[in-house]
Amino acid sequence: MTQPSGMPHNPGDPVNTDPEATSADRAEAAAEEAKAAQDAQADASSEAEVDPTLDAGLTEEALPETPDVEAELAERTEDLQRLNAEYTNYRRRTERERQAIVENAKAKVVGEFLPVLDDIELARQHGDLEEGPFKSVADKVTKILQSQNLQPFGEEGDPFNPEIHEAVQDLSTGGEQVVGTVLRRGYRVGDKLVRNAMVIIADPAQSDTAE
């Protein structure tokens, strides 16, 4: 029986004779084992991970609205309501201002015709507007000014109002005062006062006879 001698079976193989070749093979085998272990660990980690998009979706659906979001929504709603109210007020104010400008311009133009209306009124009192061409002209002028919302006021017996009546004489003796005699009629354009009526104040009982 042959006893082991401690010598390799093939003494001429470079693996058994070249120390560098033997070390390189061992290093390569160790590297392959390490790489295989690393790949296995990476596969295990990837299986344990959850899809971040799925996790985000579940989180968004599962979490209810926080009090902060509700408070912010209420604040934004209140801001919108306030802005809407401010815009509505601005629009109304602008419309009033525009209407006031129109009324002022109209009153200024119509006011230039008041002396003509005074002459027409005097002619009517003297009976000069019964017929003829002057009556036709007077009627046309009056109609045009009335179409511009010009309204006369100041009639005998009207309660005296110092805001619209200009008194040149006071013949009243009691506490109640009325218009006795109209010396010049007053005019309005809509709600705007164009000219005060010039009057003589009298007592109610004297209003029919005051001259």
UniProtKB/TrEMBL annotation:
<dbReference type="GO" id="GO:0006457">
    <property type="term" value="P:protein folding"/>
</dbReference>
<feature type="compositionally biased region" description="Basic and acidic residues">
    <location>
        <begin position="23"/>
        <end position="36"/>
    </location>
</feature>
<comment type="subunit">
    <text>Homodimer.</text>
</comment>
<dbReference type="InterPro" id="IPR009012">
    <property type="entry name" value="GrpE_head"/>
</dbReference>
<protein>
    <recommendedName>
        <fullName>Protein GrpE</fullName>
    </recommendedName>
</protein>
<keyword id="KW-0346">Stress response</keyword>
<dbReference type="GO" id="GO:0042803">
    <property type="term" value="F:protein homodimerization activity"/>
</dbReference>
<dbReference type="InterPro" id="IPR013805">
    <property type="entry name" value="GrpE_CC"/>
</dbReference>
<feature type="region of interest" description="Disordered">
    <location>
        <begin position="1"/>
        <end position="69"/>
    </location>
</feature>
<dbReference type="GO" id="GO:0005737">
    <property type="term" value="C:cytoplasm"/>
</dbReference>
<keyword id="KW-0175">Coiled coil</keyword>
<feature type="coiled-coil region">
    <location>
        <begin position="73"/>
        <end position="100"/>
    </location>
</feature>
<keyword id="KW-0143">Chaperone</keyword>
<comment type="similarity">
    <text>Belongs to the GrpE family.</text>
</comment>
<dbReference type="GO" id="GO:0051082">
    <property type="term" value="F:unfolded protein binding"/>
</dbReference>
<dbReference type="InterPro" id="IPR000740">
    <property type="entry name" value="GrpE"/>
</dbReference>
<dbReference type="GO" id="GO:0000774">
    <property type="term" value="F:adenyl-nucleotide exchange factor activity"/>
</dbReference>
<comment type="function">
    <text>Participates actively in the response to hyperosmotic and heat shock by preventing the aggregation of stress-denatured proteins, in association with DnaK and GrpE. It is the nucleotide exchange factor for DnaK and may function as a thermosensor. Unfolded proteins bind initially to DnaJ; upon interaction with the DnaJ-bound protein, DnaK hydrolyzes its bound ATP, resulting in the formation of a stable complex. GrpE releases ADP from DnaK; ATP binding to DnaK triggers the release of the substrate protein, thus completing the reaction cycle.</text>
</comment>
<dbReference type="GO" id="GO:0051087">
    <property type="term" value="F:protein-folding chaperone binding"/>
</dbReference>
<keyword id="KW-0963">Cytoplasm</keyword>
<dbReference type="Pfam" id="PF01025">
    <property type="entry name" value="GrpE"/>
</dbReference>
